[in-house]
Design brief:
binds beta-D-galactofuranose, 11 helices, 327 residues, binds zinc ion, alpha/beta, 7-stranded mixed β-sheet, 6-stranded parallel β-sheet
Length: 327
């Protein structure tokens, strides 16, 4: 190969490596301390962050799956601080216990964005919040049930999300607020299924042992718990859904949860939208540019109900709605 060609190849290679190294230096480094991989919702949320905070979009994402372990999540955030990342995003496993590490991030001058869930810390301890209002989700579930029962009695079993998670606390509190207006309702029991399918199944199995024949409503605080509860009720010969003895309410409205809703197996599914990364990226871009940004951004939710049910509080599912869902 003659010298000229070699020369061209060499400077092309140098140029390419300069672009690569320059872009490596220009990438905005973001740490995301993710709850874990406990649910389809979480999987969709993780994929959304990996798609949005890509190198092509100018980011270097360090997403740590904290496996629903609070200590691991605090350690992940401390490692982000040690690495001197540009931004830290936290989806808090627990709402309590964040003051110390948030202070450490503030002392290190690293902006922190709380995402998905809420924390019990003063708003001055972090820079922005992007998430959903799970208390409203609980209120929506309660209002939908009241509309459906229209004064009839309810004997309710509830499978809660992870203990100490704001998403579980919010849904529990919101539903309880509506329930307070209905003396004809009784909460027979409410236990944590930890937002997992196994958790939903084992809690439902224990509920069936204690309350078989006594309950007509089951509330699962996410779709994966609902799948577990459905398996347990199937095994016990208990019917649920539009044509069943038990009204089944779920949260998240993930793709498969809405398929069950369309099929009439889940009566009402209250959405909690996991597609939040673009909104978080918008906040970071404003911070980068030194522009004003929203300290809190609420990600909108809606609710869905099975075909044949008309509701003021939920949209009746159709094939078109399912086909158009992003997750
Ligand atoms: C809700 C989110 C919850 C989902 C669960 O904002 O934090 O965590 O409802 C997930 O599916 O595990
Ligand atoms: Zn699916």
């Amino acid at each position: 190969m003659n010298k000229k060609v070699l020369g061209v190849l060499a400077c092309t290679a140098v140029a390419a490596s300069m672009v690569a190294s320059a872009s490596a230096e220009d990438l905005i480094t973001v740490g995301y301390a993710q709850v874990g991989h406990e649910s389809d919702w979480r999987t969709a949320n993780t994929k959304n962050y990996e798609d949005v905070f890509s190198a092509e979009n100018g980011y270097e994402l360090s997403l740590i799956d904290c496996d629903n372990d609070n200590a691991a999540q605090l350690e992940a955030v401390r490692n982000f601080i040690t690495q001197g990342l540009d931004y830290i995003i936290i989806a808090p496993i627990q709402s309590a216990g964040w003051d110390t590490v948030l202070q450490e991030a503030q002392d290190a001058g690293i902006p922190v964005i709380i995402a998905d869930r809420e924390i019990e810390a003063d708003a001055s301890m972090y820079d922005a919040w992007v998430g959903t209002n799970t208390k409203n989700e609980g209120i929506t579930a309660g209002n939908w049930l009241a509309e459906q029962l229209d004064g009839a009695e309810a004997k309710i079993l509830q499978i809660e999300g992870s203990v100490g998670a704001s998403a579980a606390i919010g849904r529990t509190d919101g539903f309880a607020e509506v329930m307070a207006d209905h003396s004809e309702w009784e909460m027979l029991d409410s236990q944590s299924g930890d937002f997992t399918q196994d958790g939903g199944q084992s809690v439902m199995e224990s509920f069936i042992k204690s309350y078989e024949g006594q309950f007509n409503v089951v509330i699962c605080q996410n779709d994966n718990e609902a799948y577990g509860a459905m398996d347990a009720m199937d095994a016990a010969g208990i019917t649920y859904g539009v044509d069943g003895d038990v009204i089944l309410i779920s949260y998240d409205a993930t793709h498969d949860g809405l398929q069950y809703t369309l099929d009439g197996k889940i009566n009402c599914n209250v959405e909690c939208n996991p597609i939040q990364a673009e909104t978080v990226k918008g906040v970071i871009e404003k911070m980068e540019a030194g522009e004003e940004y929203e300290a809190t951004t609420l990600v909108e939710d809606q609710a869905f109900c099975a075909p044949g049910i008309e509701s003021e509080y939920a949209t009746t599912m159709t094939d078109e709605i399912l086909a158009g869902r992003a997750y």
